[in-house]
From TrEMBL:
SUPFAM superfamilies: UDP-Glycosyltransferase/glycogen phosphorylase. This is D-inositol-3-phosphate glycosyltransferase. It comes from Mycolicibacterium vanbaalenii (Mycobacterium vanbaalenii). It is an enzyme of class 2 (transferase). The keyword Transport does not apply.
């Protein structure tokens, strides 16, 4: 099986790029041939799987991208509104139109309240695709309820994750609350900073580590003003010595070690409609206890006990949840155990196998048409 994968790709620092790299590597390990068409940015491509680059805004590049994907058996298109050229990434439609091979579109965002143009773009994408993959049940239900989509085209395959293989890192004597990912408004870091003052009496005086560089688009628009505002917020709250900002972009073994060193992972997003979170999947796959705000993917994945879900507008609930995990070893242990039960179905090898099976079905359907 030869897969052509269109995606942002490392060293681009974004969740779609990490997903594209994880899926491509897993498909390769599965025995498939993978050619990646990377959505170009200011950084040079890396990795032997990258065979071409898409330059947004260039009709010639769009045509060349489609030609490259057509050299494979199946094209796997990562869809996110902000990664392709044109309003709401409308240029991806030209690529899909030019494909002669079957296409599987991976929907990273399924908006509950799209603008009319976003709806048009997304519905046209799904109409042109042979299959549409969503990564959660809530995304599948939202897709069916909100958009004019052929339900027979929709498949649910979980977001992949790398399960820890190295021995667990010895945790520091000072308990660590961890949030990681690209930094920018909407991540809800403020909620945890505000909770830290009430946790100073917890044995070991917990610290909150916020790991990750500032999102490139935020950096371009306003520099490090947002990060600096968070530092000032911690200072004014009197918890500056308990909140650490690490501007490094973590990945691979370094991210795994960071996660394993934490006592609890907190995913405090502002969004009330996020249907897929790669950070949440990585947190569960790592077997660590999780506290998250009540966005849909968190409600879905944590309902069995792998974590605690708190209301977005309830600071007391956030403080209480963090305190419970930090002070009740049995609770933290049961949450970690439940996370480890969920993890195997998220392993990249399992996810890659699901994509191979889906591609085989799509190819078989094409032969009978």
């Amino acid at each position: 099986m030869r897969f052509g994968v269109l995606s942002t790709f490392p060293p681009t620092p974004c969740g779609v790029a990490r997903f594209g790299a994880g899926l491509s590597s897993a498909l390769g390990a599965h025995g498939s041939a993978v050619g990646v068409v990377r959505v170009a940015d200011d950084s040079p491509p890396s990795g032997g799987q990258v065979v071409a680059e898409l330059v947004n805004g260039s009709a010639r590049s769009v045509a060349a991208c489609a030609d490259t994907l057509n050299l494979h058996d199946v094209a796997v298109i990562q869809h996110e509104f902000g990664i392709y050229g044109g309003a709401d990434g409308v240029e991806v439609l030209d690529i899909l139109e030019a494909l002669r091979v079957p296409s599987i579109v991976v929907a990273h965002t399924v908006l509950e309240n799209p603008t009319p143009h976003q709806r048009h773009v997304f519905e046209t994408v799904t109409a042109k695709a042979d299959r549409v993959v969503v990564m959660s049940d809530v995304a599948r239900k939202r897709l069916s309820a909100t958009y004019a989509v052929d339900r027979n085209k929709v498949a649910t395959i979980p977001h992949g994750a790398t399960l820890p293989t190295a021995p667990r890192v010895k945790r520091a004597s000072r308990p660590t609350i961890l949030t990681w990912g690209l930094l920018g408004p909407g991540k809800g870091i403020e909620r945890v900073i505000d909770a830290m003052a009430s946790l100073q009496d917890v044995p070991g005086r917990p610290r909150y580590v916020v790991a990750g560089r500032t999102h490139p688009k935020v950096l371009a628009a306003e520099g490090e003003a947002y990060r600096e505002s968070l530092v000032e917020r911690a200072r004014l709250a009197g918890v500056a010595d308990s909140v650490t900002f690490d501007a490094q972009y973590y990945g691979g073994a370094m991210l795994a070690a960071l996660i394993q060193s934490s006592s609890v992972i907190v995913v405090p997003y502002d969004s009330t409609e996020q249907a897929t979170s790669g950070v949440l999947v990585d947190a569960i796959a790592s077997g660590r206890p999780v506290v998250a705000t009540a966005f849909p993917h968190a409600i879905e994945l944590l309902c069995g006990g792998a974590g605690l879900v708190v209301s977005h507008d309830d600071p007391d609930a956030m403080r209480t949840a963090l305190r419970q995990v930090l002070t009740q070893p049995r609770l933290a242990g049961s949450m970690a155990a439940e996370a480890r039960q969920l993890a195997p179905e998220m392993e990249w090898s399992v996810v890659a196998d699901a994509y191979v099976q889906l591609a085989q079905r799509v190819l078989a359907e094409r032969r009978t048409q």
